[in-house]
Amino acid sequence: NLQVVGATTQPLFKEENLTSLVVKMEKIFQYRNDHNGYALPIGRCIAFKKNTISNFPPNLHSEDTWISLISLKEYGFDTVKIIPALVYYTPAGNWVDWIKQRSRWIVGYNQIFLSFPELKEVHRSYVEKYRKPKEALVRQELIDLEKDGIDQELLAIATNFIKPLLQENAVLQKEQLLTKDGVWEPIESTKE
After folding, report:
1. What is the C-alpha R_g of the chain?
2. How many CA atoms lie within 13 A of 151 on its CB side?
3. Count H helices, E strands: the chain?
4. How far apart are CA 91 and CA 26, in angstroms?
5. Rounded (10°) CA dihedral 100, 173, 46, 4
6. For the segment 89-135, what is each residue's pLDDT rounded down to a tens digit?
7. How many CA atoms lie within 13 A of 192 on its CB side?
8. Which in 44, 56, 107, 147 has the greatest CB count within 10 A?
9. What is the pTM for the complete model shown?
């Protein structure tokens, strides 16, 4: 009994930027999201039954994530699915916008987990259910991303430097990234 469905998201990069470091980081983070059990139906393509949600909480930025998590909690893991369809998106085209965009997503998750602490455990359980064993993930990640010029050193930088940078930036920039009414400053390089 499906309650929420979404498509797989796929970044659509500009041809002239394919070798840039910011594009490689987007590929790493997108790959990890798709293969580590983090993928949830989100706003780029999400559909849900009208009776699934009675009321949306006010001033919540990540409504799409909240819909998926609350549905997992209320209806079970088998009621929220990613379907075999692709939705293309334009990723941020420069470091300033990329860091801001990724930090916004972290702020959105943190806002949900602060307002609805029970959903943090739902999310953790969901990730654990769909995550592959770490050793297999690391090996496959190297094989899959090597064709894009992404090596083990770049993967280590993403893990040991970029991810903590994004998490710290989300904390430091929270007030600038999210206003009380849930409005975000637009990311210009993603609007094409």
Report:
1. 17
2. 1
3. 8, 3
4. 8
5. 140
6. 888 888 999 998 898 888 888 889 998 999 999 999 988 887 777 77
7. 12
8. 107
9. 0.81
Edge-to-edge strands, sheet with 46-48:
46-48, 4-11, 80-89
What is the DSSP pairing of strand 46-48 with strand 4-11?
antiparallel
More confident residue, 162 or 45: 162
pLDDT of 188 over the 80 cut: no
Where would I find the beta strands (DSSP E) of 37-126?
A: 46-48, 80-89
What number of other Cβ atoms are within 10 A of residue 183's Cβ?
10
End-to-end CA distance of the chain: 37
- Using CA atoms in the order 15, 86, 128, 32, what is the torsion angle rounded to 10 degrees? 0
List Cα–Cα distances, 105 to 3, 54, 109, 153, 170, in angstroms: 23, 24, 6, 25, 8
Residues in CB range of 181: below 8 A, 6 or more apart: 59
The H-or-E segment that residue 7 falls in is strand 4-11
- Structure confidence by residue, pLDDT tens digits, 25-84: 999 998 888 777 677 877 778 888 888 887 888 878 788 889 999 999 999 988 888 888
